Prior knowledge:
Number of helices: 6
Number of domains: 2
Order of helices and strands: HHHHHH
Amino acid sequence: MSDKLISFYNDNSLIVNISLGVILLVAAVVYIIFRKKINEIYKKYKEIINYIIVGVLTTLVSIGSYWLFRFIIKNYVILSIISWILAVSFAYITNRIYVFESKSTKIVEEITKFFGARLFTLGLEVTLMILFVSVFKINDMVSKIILQVVVLVLNYIFSKIFVFKKDKKTTE
């Protein structure tokens, strides 16, 4: 696979480099022109935007680890559990710091709630993986990607309402 990628790049390096340069230039121009509006939108929806970014990164950790370990482990249920552990560990740290900016001193309680909510979505994900793969005969990677969207939305709701809710003591 990497040989094909290197070969493709070597054969098309000029086109690839020009294309990347044009994309970066267009992105920079768009940002310069709409900088004020982009900053306003970011300030207004900071938590949701940060959650989406962290969610995408968490999903990449989950899918990436699932994909990587499937060369060693053939059972998709075990793969889902391993990818979950890695993704949730990453998610807790990034959600606490960058998304919900938690100042809570009750870290053990917060972690317990976070992992508890994630255990629920893990159970849902594993159950639906079994249903999708074994019953509906949907490819395991396709099932994993679909379920990541469902899990992402549920995890935000649980984190916002249950885990990182701002109480009067932490906001004063």
